[in-house]
Design brief:
Elements: H1 5-14, E1 53-58, H2 60-63, E2 70-71, E3 78-79, H3 83-90, E4 95-98, E5 113-114, E6 120-121, E7 134-138, H4 146-156, H5 166-173, H6 178-199, E8 204-208, H7 231-252, E9 255-257, H8 259-262, H9 292-306
Parallel strand pairs: 1-4, 1-7, 7-8, 8-9
Antiparallel strand pairs: 2-3, 5-6
Helix pairs in contact: 3-9, 4-5, 6-7
Amino acid sequence: MRWSTAHRAIVVAIAGIPLLAGCTGGSTQPGPDDPAAGGSSPPATTATTPYQRYVALGDSFTAAPYVPSTDLAEGCLRSNGNYPSLVAERLDIPTLVDVSCSGADTRDLTHPQNTFRDAVVPAQLDAVTPDTDLVTLGIGGNDFDLFATLLQTCIGVRGDDTTGRPCADYLQSTGTDLGRQIGRIGDRVAAALQEIQRRAPEAEVLLVGYPRIVPPEGACPDLLPLAEGDYPLAERLSTQLDRALRDAAERTGVELVDMYTASRGHDVCSDQPWVNGQVTDEAAALAFHPFAAAMDAVADRIVARLSQ
């Protein structure tokens, strides 16, 4: 089994944290109101829908480590406050099969995944059966080590160069074309969506996008320690990933839950962040991972869509 850079980045993020499965305490982050995006988020609702078997697939932005109580047994760092749990509760769905796993990329949808605790979990798509009537997928950021490059390599090469663009220079010197790789991520996600549709032809399938991590302008080195000149690179690549996911959804006829637009004004540097900075808070979120506010916002949008 492979041990990807994405998995190593997660290990770095949790280093020194007591591995207690029963972490308690909720996020103190603000709620999902988003005036900058043109209004407030849809209010949380409780409803009953015809969905009987909901399968949630994805990576750590679905698993939501430390939001708040987290199951560490299989090394997937899957919390009980993530958006699949909230959606299942709010829509009164009797069966939730949440196989999201931190560190996952699109290959882990069809192949077993080796997690950070040296456990092996089955391919996520094994959970998608013909009787599944709702599937959400949130994945792509770990492919080609995209997030690990932005949040580990770029921070690592910053050194004493706080105002230049050492990461952009490093990527250029190594011939790393993340933009081209993002295009391939879109193809992989589209193929995954088609496989979900093949396995569960009657299911409602939603692709969940990523929230903003990097601000469109400005910097916050205490929270996101990139060199100032590398912030535009990180923001541009995040935007390209969002476009690739949007294109994958359009190609397959799947609806995108657009969290990139929804999270405008909620990046790591904002006053109301939906994504944590570089310091893990066991009662709120793993470093560089979503807070409870982000999970609420995703769940609100999924519930609003399915309740129409």
